[in-house]
TrEMBL record:
Glycosyltransferase listed as a keyword: no
Coiled coil: none
Known EC number: 6.1.1.17
NCBIfam families, per the entry: gltX_bact
Name of the protein in its database record: Glutamate--tRNA ligase
Sites where the protein binds ATP: K212
Length: 434
């Protein structure tokens, strides 16, 4: 195409900006940016009763957090005079008319403005779905405005797309049924038809419509849960689009290079939280040491903010909010206070307790020989494995050491725990259980 690529994202401020809309916005943003085009954010707030400022703020803040800047910003509520001009044009040309009707409910207006349907077949080539044909006869003369000051969705959308010279309408497949009405209005106004690309819906694991239980939350709720914006975008990009390779981790810049409308699939993709967590963890690995430390420390209670525990935490989380869950589960307690020990739990399988005590005495001896400044996880491991490798089973030493230091059957490995506790505290805890 020789005309400039212009895409738009037209959310309605009647609810929070959820992940389905984020993916639609992402595809529009990527396509415009990779074609040196323009990406527009248009707030469709003609529904005065349901539109709320807090939802508009949520939309704008979501775009800021996701780092998807738009070139232009509009509110339909501020464009009433423009819609009025086009309405008058349609009525003057007898392509629309004021219809006096029996109000459906008490208190409703008795007149509306209806589009004069030419009752014809409409064909268009969808960039995702291919050839689509509609017979518009069934649509009858549909309503396009309540009055001159209150345009309805179909009219406002078409007028905006004409005025903003939108070249590509990229939206969910649930909008296909809107397309014939909008093409009829577009032709009546002499506008140039944009190219349509109806993208597949995001589905729950059971292939039903995505629900809150399966991840249909707003973008900023994912922010609150500690997901990285680039990871959320990476994850959403892959629901319905395939790069054609095994690569699954993409930065936004890499998506800009790889994305294409041709590789969008026709059928819906499943929202898989496990995959989102994996992708988020991979993006966390790309962060600088300083950034990781800052985020983990911010999510720790004040009395747990010891940088030494960061390597233990980063291995066990896939998003920042997991830090709080680890704390609540007591998984970090052993680093800040000596655990309560039940002696019987020191035993490994059927090993007698006197044998366990003997092994722990050997451990104390080899660890005592290490200098404080050499008390690293690697050196501790080397020292303890000299003993463990000579036993029937390594667990006869490593299990009681782990339990004596942490008070837990499941915990980070004993070498890491000991290195964080330091030489004196490690030996003190081992001595208490011998």
């Amino acid at each position: 195409m020789d005309k400039k690529v212009i895409t738009r994202m037209p959310p309605s401020p009647t609810g929070l900006f959820h992940v389905g809309s984020v993916r639609t916005a992402l595809y529009n943003y990527l396509y415009a940016k990779q074609n040196n085009g323009k990406f527009i954010l248009r707030i469709e707030d003609t529904d005065k009763e349901r539109s709320q400022k807090e939802f508009e703020n949520n939309i704008v803040e979501s775009f800021r957090w996701l780092n998807m800047p738009y070139k232009e910003f509009y509110r339909q509520s501020e464009r009433t005079e423009i819609y009025k001009k086009y309405l008058k044009e349609l009525i003057d040309k007898k392509l629309a008319y004021v219809s006096t009707e029996e109000p459906k409910e008490k208190g409703e207006r008795g007149t509306v403005i209806r589009f004069n349907n030419p009752n014809k077949k409409i064909k268009f080539t969808d960039l995702v779905l291919g050839e689509i044909e509609f017979d518009t006869t069934d649509l009858k003369d549909f309503v396009i405005a309540k009055d001159f000051d209150t345009p309805l969705y179909h009219l406002a959308v078409v007028v905006d797309d004409i005025e903003m010279k939108v070249s590509h309408v990229i939206r969910g497949q649930d909008h296909i049924s809107n397309t014939p009405r909008q093409i009829l209005i577009l032709e009546a106004l002499g506008g140039q038809r944009p190219q349509y690309a109806h993208i597949p819906l995001i589905l729950s694991p059971d292939k039903s419509k995505l629900s809150k239980r399966h991840g249909a939350m707003s973008a900023l709720e994912y922010k609150e849960m500690g997901y990285l914006p680039e990871a959320l975008l990476n994850f959403l990009a892959l629901i319905g689009w395939n790069p054609g390779t095994d690569k699954e981790i993409f930065t936004l810049d890499e998506l800009l290079k790889e994305f294409s409308l041709e590789k969008i699939q026709k059928s819906g993709g499943v929202f898989n939280v496990k995959k989102l967590n994996w992708i988020n963890k991979e993006h966390m690995k790309m962060l600088s040491k300083k950034e990781i430390e800052k985020n983990i420390l911010e999510n720790l209670p004040e009395d747990y903010r010891n940088p030494k525990v960061i390597p233990v935490i980063i291995e066990r989380i896939s998003k920042w909010s997991d830090v709080g869950e680890i704390v609540r589960a007591g998984e970090l307690d052993c680093f800040f206070k000596a655990p309560e020990i039940v002696k019987e739990k020191l035993a490994y399988k059927n090993t007698p307790l006197n044998k366990i005590s003997y092994n722990l005495e050997l451990a104390i001896k080899v660890l005592s020989d290490l200098e404080e400044n050499n008390f690293t996880a690697e050196n501790i491991k080397n020292a303890l494995m000299l003993i463990a490798d000579n036993l029937e089973n390594r667990g006869m030493l490593l299990h009681p050491v782990r339990y004596a230091l942490s008070g837990r059957d499941n915990s980070p490995d004993p070498f890491i725990i000991a290195s964080i506790l330091g030489k004196n505290e490690t030996i003190s805890r081992l001595q208490k259980v011998v």
